[in-house]
Amino acid sequence: MDFTAEVERSLRVLDGAVALFCAVGGVEPQSETVWRQSNKYGVPKLAFVNKMDRTGADFFGALENIEKMLQGNPAAIEIPLGSEENFRGVVDLIEMKAYIYEEESQGKEYKIEDIPEELRERAQKYRHIMLEKAAAFNDELMKKVLESEATITSEEIIAALRKGTIANKLVPVLCGASFKNKGVQKLLDAVTMFLPSPLDVAAVKGTDPKDPDKVCELRPDAQEPFCGLAFKVQSDPHMGKLVYVRVYSGRLDNSTYILNATKNKRERVGRIIQMHANQRSPKEHAFAGDIVAVIGLNSTITGDTLCELDNPVLLESIQFPVPVVSLSIEPKTRDDQDKLGRGLAKLTEEDPTFIVKTDDETKETILTGMGELHLEIIVDRLKTEFNVDAVVGRPKVAYRETILASAKDEYKHAKQSGGRGQYGHVVFEISPNEVGKGFEFINSIKGGVIPRQFFPAIEKGLNEIMQRGVYAGYPIVDIKVDLLDGSFHEVDSSEISFKLAAIGCLKKVFLKASPILLEPSMSLEVTTPEEYINAVIGYICSKRGKIMGMEMKGNQKIVSAEAPLSEMFGYATAFRSLTSGRANATMEFDKYVQVPSEIALKILEEAAAKKKAEES
Questions:
Q1: How many CB atoms lie within 10 A of CB 401?
Q2: 107 and 180 share a domain?
Q3: Domain containing residue 547: CATH number
């Protein structure tokens, strides 16, 4: 979960993926999360069941898992030849031949033989299943399958399987042992045979930045106008900022000017680089379908659309989950202060799920990320890459504030201190908004009781106080603020007066509207051997968790639960110690829920004590 941003941004720009499963573990909780993400972006997949040479390997169990747990439509195009220490190779169900790998050659050499007698019946069974699934995508093949399988050619099967895979309605499944290089070459062949090229994917839809209702299609053609999506930013010690771009249409040339349509800024393409892991080679051009790194794009960040200057178009950006864990960081010396600033600026540019903000009252630097591990690695990178010596506070939870009732009140900001004074007067009615809808500002002013030029200042004041919070110092969410009335002074009214009036009025009215605290609730999945199930359930319940369901998978129990993040720090270590290291737990953010009143009381007391300490 801590690195979900990497998965999201990769799947957003890729045309195909290989889902990797362990032959012993089968479908694990993380696999389910990533599979769901790939379905969200409609990415066609192959599945590779790895580690066939390990004790407990079960290819057919993994195949069943993919169907039942992931709701996939798997079609085995290979079955293993032996398993565990007897794993020798694979049976290709398209060619109906056995590929037997030479042990000494590290999988580089193999013999193609007839299928061993003892495997023939099983191979026929799985070939028939594969043909039936493939035939669903080709009427001609369906006819042949119903009549007789003898005349079916490998080319016909591959074409039908490819069609089903590209439509994301079929998942070809292969197997092997990659440590010994067995089955890897056949997986690479399957990538070229079944996964789509950029030309096989539907045209990408974009919108006109000036008219969001106007939709245009971007075809993967080098003759079309250029359009691409920046999906990753990386700081390189030698080259500076690298922006990874997926080119959807047209071509991108070195030393040209392009438009960042998201920010409406002109950018200059310095150099285009083709990346091969940590190797890089310069390129003059990038064409539709390419993924390249670009040097020289100063204003571009993850999710920005790049296009031609005279042909602006906006692509759908990348949506990331909400970061929910915070910690404070303080540099040890003045020298470290500068290095910390530079390091954090680079890391926030790279990682869209990492947020840095300074607490105005405590002057602390607060880092917020996806989880404890995420923040641990960021702190480690600050130390190793940027040489920052810092003191790190304990992880904290990103609480939120909202209201349960409606309330109405007014606030007059009036100051007279010789010369021109300050005057702003507003009347607000606030009410709860729908969950997830955020802040809504309604302007019901009629007859010019407040001049129009002060409305943006009022809204700015509201946004500012909502970030700081009123009840316990946490950001306010999901409220509607209706500006009903107010008054102004010809001379003394100014933007700052109305901004301060808005802040004062929200502070006053918020506390009348049954304020509550919200906390992040996490969805938790624990896979544990059955003998530890009581200890696991006991631990979850002791942490204010709710058990949502349980199911069996082999001799393992899978527990689904919901639990508040504030209680779950160090959960991975806790589950390991409860189960002698045999449980596997994953947790991801689900939603914000109300904090129970007795715990809210403690949080409020802590906030008040902290404020008092700062004032004194």
A1: 21
A2: yes
A3: 3.30.70.240
Helix (H) or strand (E) holding 338: helix 334-350
Amino acid 362: pLDDT: 59
CB within 8 Å of 602: residues ≥ 6 apart:
none
Residue among 291, 48, 73 at smallest CA distance from 174: 48
570 Cβ neighbours under 8 A, 6+ residues apart? 372
For residue 3, tell me if it sits in a domain: no
251 and 152, same domain (yes or no)? no
Instruction: Kindly state the percentage of the chain with pLDDT values over 70.
Output: 97
In this predicted structure, the answer to whether residue 573 has a pLDDT above a threshold of 80 is no
C-beta separation of 481 from 463 below 8 A: no
What does the block give as tokens for 229? 């999506």
Distance CA 519, CA 569 (A): 14
Alpha-carbon distance of 289 to 227, in angstroms, equals 11
**Total-model pTM:** 0.71
User: Which residues neighbour 140 within 8 Å (Cβ) at sequence distance 6 or greater?
Assistant: 156
CB atoms within 10 A of CB 230: 26
List the one residue out of 174, 193, 179, 215 whose CA is nearest residue 77. 174
**What average pLDDT is seen over the chain?**
89
DSSP string computed for 594-608: EPPHHHHHHHHHHHH
DSSP 8-state assignment for residue 213 = E
Closest CA to 13 of 357, 305, 300: 305
Looking at the structure, do residues 48 and 162 belong to the same domain, yes or no? yes
Of 130, 120, 122, the C-alpha closest to 152 is 130
The Cα 344–Cα 339 span in angstroms is: 9
Per the structure, how many domains does the chain have?
5
CA 332 from centre of chain? 33
Domain region containing 488: 401-513
Between CA 294 and CA 242, with CA 319 as vertex, the angle to 5 degrees is 15
**Strand pairing report for 325-331 and 390-392:** antiparallel
Q: What's the CA gap between 255 and 258, in Å, rounded? A: 10
Decide if 264 contacts 209 (C-beta within 8 A). yes
Q: Decide: 159 and 150 in contact? Cβ < 8 Å.
A: no
Q: Residues in the chain, how many?
A: 616
d(CA 472, CA 445): 31
- How far is residue 587's CA from residue 571's CA, in Å, rounded to a whole number? 9
* Whether pLDDT at 418 is above 70: no
Among 315, 348, 381, residue at a domain's last position: 315
Three-state SS across 529-574?
EHHHHHHHHHHHHHCCCEEEEEEEECCEEEEEEEEEHHHCCCHHHH
CA dist 228 and 218 (Å) reads 10
d(CA 539, CA 577): 11
